[in-house]
Amino acid sequence: MSGQSAVAAAEGRVWPCPSCDADREFVQPPCADGHTEDGGECPEWACADCGTALVSGSPVGVAAGPARRAAA
Fold first, then answer.
1. Looking at CB atoms within 10 Å, which of 22, 51, 57, 68 has the fewest?
2. Dist CA 69 CA 58 (whole Å)
3. Strand, helix or coil for residue 44
4. pLDDT band for position 9 (50/70/90)?
5. Distance CA 51, CA 8 (A)
Protein backbone atom coordinates (compact mmCIF):
# COMPACT_ATOMS: atom_id res chain seq x y z
CA MET A 1 0.00 0.00 0.00
CA SER A 2 2.29 2.63 -1.29
CA GLY A 3 4.92 2.50 1.44
CA GLN A 4 2.59 2.39 4.45
CA SER A 5 4.19 0.98 7.61
CA ALA A 6 2.96 -2.23 9.25
CA VAL A 7 1.77 -0.15 12.21
CA ALA A 8 -0.40 2.05 10.00
CA ALA A 9 -1.84 -1.01 8.24
CA ALA A 10 -2.76 -2.56 11.62
CA GLU A 11 -4.70 0.58 12.60
CA GLY A 12 -6.55 0.92 9.30
CA ARG A 13 -8.87 -1.30 7.31
CA VAL A 14 -8.59 -2.48 3.75
CA TRP A 15 -11.64 -1.83 1.57
CA PRO A 16 -12.21 -1.28 -2.15
CA CYS A 17 -11.68 2.40 -2.92
CA PRO A 18 -14.10 3.68 -5.57
CA SER A 19 -11.69 6.42 -6.67
CA CYS A 20 -8.54 4.27 -6.83
CA ASP A 21 -10.51 1.34 -8.29
CA ALA A 22 -8.53 -1.07 -6.10
CA ASP A 23 -8.28 -2.32 -2.52
CA ARG A 24 -6.69 0.36 -0.36
CA GLU A 25 -6.04 1.03 3.30
CA PHE A 26 -8.60 3.31 4.95
CA VAL A 27 -7.67 5.23 8.09
CA GLN A 28 -9.69 7.33 10.51
CA PRO A 29 -9.01 11.02 10.85
CA PRO A 30 -9.53 12.49 14.34
CA CYS A 31 -13.27 12.42 15.13
CA ALA A 32 -14.69 15.90 15.63
CA ASP A 33 -18.29 14.69 16.04
CA GLY A 34 -17.94 12.92 19.40
CA HIS A 35 -18.49 9.36 18.13
CA THR A 36 -15.54 8.04 20.15
CA GLU A 37 -16.27 9.80 23.47
CA ASP A 38 -18.29 6.84 24.77
CA GLY A 39 -15.82 4.25 23.45
CA GLY A 40 -17.61 3.83 20.12
CA GLU A 41 -16.02 3.88 16.71
CA CYS A 42 -16.24 6.85 14.39
CA PRO A 43 -17.96 5.84 11.13
CA GLU A 44 -15.79 8.14 8.99
CA TRP A 45 -12.86 6.63 7.08
CA ALA A 46 -10.50 8.07 4.46
CA CYS A 47 -8.42 6.32 1.79
CA ALA A 48 -4.77 6.60 2.81
CA ASP A 49 -3.76 6.99 -0.86
CA CYS A 50 -6.27 9.43 -2.37
CA GLY A 51 -8.32 10.76 0.57
CA THR A 52 -11.72 9.54 -0.66
CA ALA A 53 -14.09 9.49 2.33
CA LEU A 54 -16.38 6.59 3.27
CA VAL A 55 -18.92 6.29 6.06
CA SER A 56 -19.37 2.85 7.59
CA GLY A 57 -22.18 1.52 9.73
CA SER A 58 -25.50 -0.22 9.70
CA PRO A 59 -28.00 0.86 7.09
CA VAL A 60 -30.74 3.09 8.42
CA GLY A 61 -34.27 2.08 7.48
CA VAL A 62 -36.68 4.54 5.94
CA ALA A 63 -40.34 4.18 6.84
CA ALA A 64 -42.70 4.37 3.91
CA GLY A 65 -45.57 6.78 4.36
CA PRO A 66 -49.01 6.52 2.78
CA ALA A 67 -49.16 7.53 -0.85
CA ARG A 68 -51.18 10.67 -1.52
CA ARG A 69 -52.92 11.65 -4.70
CA ALA A 70 -53.74 15.13 -5.82
CA ALA A 71 -57.44 15.89 -5.81
CA ALA A 72 -58.99 15.72 -9.23
1. 68
2. 33
3. strand
4. very low
5. 15
pLDDT for residue 31 is more than 90: no
Q: For residue 70, what are the CA distances in angstroms to 64, 65, 67?
A: 18, 15, 10
Check: CB of residue 48 under 8 Å from CB of residue 11. no
Q: Return the exposure string of 9-24: e unless at least 16 CB atoms fall within 10 Å of the residue's CB, then b.
A: eeebeeeebeeeeeeb
**Residues 7, 39: contact at Cβ < 8 Å?**
no
How much is the average pLDDT of 3-19? 67
Beta strand residue intervals within the chain, DSSP E: 13-17, 22-27, 44-47, 53-55
What pTM value is reported for the model? Answer: 0.61
For Cα atoms 39, 43, 47, give the angle at the middle one, nearest 5 degrees.
Answer: 125
